[in-house]
Write the structure tokens for this entry.
Amino acid sequence: MVEFSLLNPERRMLRAMQADKRAAWTLSDLLAACDWTDQVVAVGAGHGLENRGLVTVETTVVAEVVLDASGQDAVDHGLLEARLWSWMQSEDEPTMKGLQSAFERHEAGPGVGLLKQLGVTIEQGRLVATDSIRIDSTLAARTDFLAMLPCELTDEVRPMVEAFKGRKGFIAVLERTDRSWSITEEGRSVTGEALVETTVVTDITPELLQGDAWRNAEFRAFDVTLEASTPRTGRSHPMQALIERIRAVFLEMGFSELVDDYVQTAGWNMDALFIPQDHPAREMQDTFYLDEPASLSLDDGMMSHWKAVHEHGGDTGSRGWGGTFSKDIAQRGLLRTHTTVNTIQYLAEHPTEACRMFSVDRVFRKEAIDRTHLPEFHQIEGIIMEEGANLQMLVTTLKTFYAKMGYPEVRVRPAYFPYTEPSLEIEVRWRGKWLELGGAGIFRPEVTEPLGITAPVLAWGMGLERLAMLVLGLDDIRQLYISDLEWLRNQPIL
Ligand code: PHE
């Protein structure tokens, strides 16, 4: 009599094994006899029974030879050397020249080497074979070998495996664990109640806990040390998951999200931000200007404010940039180069209401694509406008933001942006190094006064992809946009 209680799969497995005389059971025997499809269930049940001495398990690691891509290609279209050989036999007088015109360069090159290995010699440009019978049988053996894959790695196939291993991508040797289970004397002696499958509670629900049924229920015990298949379910792309996390952090901090168009004017993207009209970043090589719409009309009064500020500082006390401000330049259509274009317009529409706004959105810059640059990327942007806001508050807010994102060590350094004073660069410590993640500052009077804003505006912005590379530990930004399913599946849940 056994004094322990078995789990349902263990009961079923033991019953199946008792009912049959066979000495050893393979995985597929068990799946068939127990009416299971999931091998994890069988392996788990076997493990449980083994622990109680009711079955024994024998594991053997089997090396299996399988076809790789080039091998599969050879099976489908013939081995290169076999195709060369049949070409040679179809020619009256096979020559190197003939071979080079009958086969493409990438085949002719390695092909000659393969023929030489088979015993073909080159005599004054002619290809000569002395022992055709041996070549035929060698080729037949190679072809037959590939055709019979997959197979176990036995001594018999080992020489062929060694030969093909030297050729890239033909075959691979994989290890597979085979198990076989045998019932013990003790296993045969288990009878009666112990083998009856019961209803087992696998999910603890509120309904269950509210009633009394749980008191007598049998609960499924989990053995977290067992091997299990990884659930492959749909999930967010890591970039999307990161965006959601950023949103959550901003919302927790009392910010509201701003979503706006990426077709904008140079006026809002640059002039409103006191970026001089001859600033290098405005050049064609940095900014995507649009043909359609080539220009968008802006409020003339607003442009006159900007003109005054740019030319001589207007009423702000600034001296401006000098020169002549062009309203045509201001009205040119472009793809926004930063999300600050949207925050500044929000402020222009609500110049006197205190606010905390953020956005996570797409921006465009004419960058050549490389390991750390993309022409289309995302910026994370935040602003706080309220009476009494100051630098201290900006730094504290940045530190809080990054701490909530999981980066407690943040430092700021002086920087320069045409639209903020003071301006800061934000650095985050990651794996012992300080990484620059973005810019921040307090908007200058040249920016705020023409819009009728009187309270200080704290602003910061940074690249989302930079942050994503950090969070996901990438060294190539392009990885984020390659839909490599294997990589995507293995990303951490953010
Ligand atoms: N707009 C800046 C950029 O594109 C970042 C920034 C935003 C800097 C707000 C200061 C204030 O890099």
Remarks:
- Residues 69-169 form one domain.
- The CA atoms of residues 422 and 441 lie 6 Å apart.
